[in-house]
Amino acid sequence: MALADYEAVLIHIKKTLHAERSPVVVFGGSYSGMLAAWFRLKYSHLAIGALASSASILFVEDMMLPNAYVDVVSRDYKNS
């Protein structure tokens, strides 16, 4: 539902500002980063790009091992 809301807001803003042909890049961090990436995938006709900082896009419940995210972050921290 959040993605559809963003779509409606973006379309409204572009119409109001007479900027229908202006490029849009969506961005966010963590949860909002996941939304940005998913928005770009679903509404590629509205956004030319997405910046998803610290977005655990592939970490969706029941799709990965329970500790996969923590294991990857811990390994990266240890290696740094």
Automatic annotation (TrEMBL):
GO terms for molecular function: dipeptidyl-peptidase activity; serine-type exopeptidase activity. InterPro entries: AB_hydrolase_fold, Peptidase_S28, Ser_carbopepase_S28_SKS. Gene3D superfamilies: alpha/beta hydrolase, Serine carboxypeptidase S28, SKS domain. The keyword Hydrolase applies. It comes from the Eukaryota. One of its GO terms (biological process) is proteolysis. Keywords: Glycoprotein, Hydrolase, Protease, Signal. Belongs to the peptidase S28 family. This is Serine carboxypeptidase S28 family protein.
